[in-house]
Amino acid sequence: MSTDVPQTLEAFMAQALAMEFEAMQRYADLADAMEMHNNRDVAELFRRMALIENKHAAKIMAEMGWKEPPPLAAAPAWEGFEAAETIALDDVHYLMRPWHALQLALRAEERAERFFARLAQAATVDSIRKAALELQQEEHEHVELVRVWLAKVPQPEPDWAHDPDPPRYDE
Q: What's the CA gap between 82 and 53, in Å, rounded?
């Protein structure tokens, strides 16, 4: 990740808000995909994660007094092509179990926590450093929540990806 840190609190929070919106949308998209494949348990879990990200975005909007999301002043400095908290589509399998989904969510929340920690360390403006540390703490709480959920679900059986009726593609 680049250590380019927005120089105003508004720009920083707009970046954080964009990250929450992107994660929320990806979780919602993944939930839709899992429902399409009749994987309702994982779909429900992804919907719960989308709701958490939506609440986090709403909290940022309220704290900043924004009625509408502000435009981003500059492209965010993500680790890769997507926001730190976004699950890569390539990591998702249509037969995955809740344990897999929680593993993906855990990695996403841990990336978000590291992202805000790095921004806090690189920040030269006190209000941005403080906000980054607060967001890092919130992401840490999300990490702990996902770990609690993970402890409650069974690990998948070794042949979890076997589909006795796999999709067929005709051209």
A: 16
Read off the tokens for 56. 């986090």
Region 41-67 average pLDDT: 93
Delineate the domains of the chain, giving CATH numbers in brackets: 9-152 (1.20.1260.10)
Q: What is the mean pLDDT of residues 78-100?
A: 80
Nearest to 82 by CA among 29, 122, 46: 29
Can you tell me whether residue 9 is helix, strand or coil? Answer: helix
Whether residue 25 contacts residue 49, with contact meaning beta carbons closer than 8 Å, is answered with no
pLDDT average, residue stretch 94-116: 91
Three-state SS for 12-48 is HHHHHHHHHHHHHHHHHHHHHHHHHCCCHHHHHHHHH
Alpha-carbon distance of 156 to 55, in angstroms, equals 30
52: tokens are 């958490």
Give the closest residue to 15 by CA, choosing from 48, 46, 60.
60
